[in-house]
Design brief:
The chain is of the alpha/beta class. It is built from 6 helices and 9 strands, in the order E-H-E-H-E-H-E-H-E-H-E-E-H-E-E. 35% of the residues lie in helices and 25% in strands. Strand 1, helix 1 and strand 2 form a beta-alpha-beta unit. Bound molecules: 5-O-phosphono-beta-D-ribofuranosylamine (GRF). 5-O-phosphono-beta-D-ribofuranosylamine binds next to helix 1, strand 5 and helix 6.
Length: 202
């Protein structure tokens, strides 16, 4: 059965685009039911429209409090009846209520080899720390930031000539491979969460 996936993104949406392309090329057996965004100016919105994907804007700044915003977001998510929620550069931390509403049904991509360098500016953190290998991680989302069970990781070298932008670009190329790959595995029912571990049926 074709899975239903909904994507949450706040900005550029290049990972969202990689997912759209993988669906179009039939590498992911899924239908994207919606782009949900907290940012009415997100570049990702144009990508959704071009691909004929409905856009749902839950504009954070139009709500009186975080609680009210999260209730609206939760209801927008529930309406999707999605098998999987894909966080593709969604720049807000999702509260417990949302995370707990979709256990094992939400994945995120982070531009670092977790558990190193959680949170914002992961590539800058890696450069400042002086690691020689960096990369990206696709993981299930739990209540803690950048912490859930890891599905896939891909690595890149850190070069002495790198600045934040150069490293981010090298990692991004790997993100665009890892994210569709992980989503495909999920949609093919090949992922099993066992404690902190994700078993992949090959
Ligand atoms: C990516 O680096 C992703 O790892 C992080 O946010 C960035 C989003 O980029 N979570 P884009 O919007 O997918 O281009």
């Amino acid at each position: 059965m074709m899975k239903r996936i909904a994507v949450l993104a706040s900005g550029r949406g290049s990972n969202f685009q990689a997912v759209i392309d993988a669906i179009t090329e039939k590498n992911i057996p899924a239908r994207c039911t919606a782009l949900i965004t907290d940012n009415p100016n997100a570049y990702a919105i144009g990508r959704a429209k071009k691909a004929g994907i409905p856009v749902v804007v839950v504009d954070y700044s139009s709500f009186p409090s975080r609680e009210v915003y999260e209730r609206a977001l939760l209801s927008a998510m529930q309406q999707q009846e999605a098998d999987l929620f894909v966080l593709a550069g969604y720049m807000r931390i999702l509260g417990k209520i949302i995370v707990q509403a979709f256990p094992g049904k939400m994945v995120n991509i982070h531009p670092a080899l977790l558990p190193s360098f959680t949170g914002l500016h992961a590539q800058r953190q890696a450069l400042e720390y002086g690691v020689k290998i960096a990369g990206c991680t696709v993981h299930f989302v739990d209540e803690h930031l950048d912490c859930g069970p890891i599905i896939l990781q891909r690595c890149v070298p850190v070069l002495e000539s790198d600045d934040e932008e150069a490293l981010a670009e090298r990692i991004l190329i790997q993100e665009h491979i890892a994210f569709p790959d992980a989503i495909r595995l999920f949609c093919e029912d090949r992922l099993e969460i066992v404690g902190r571990n994700v078993r992949i049926r090959w």
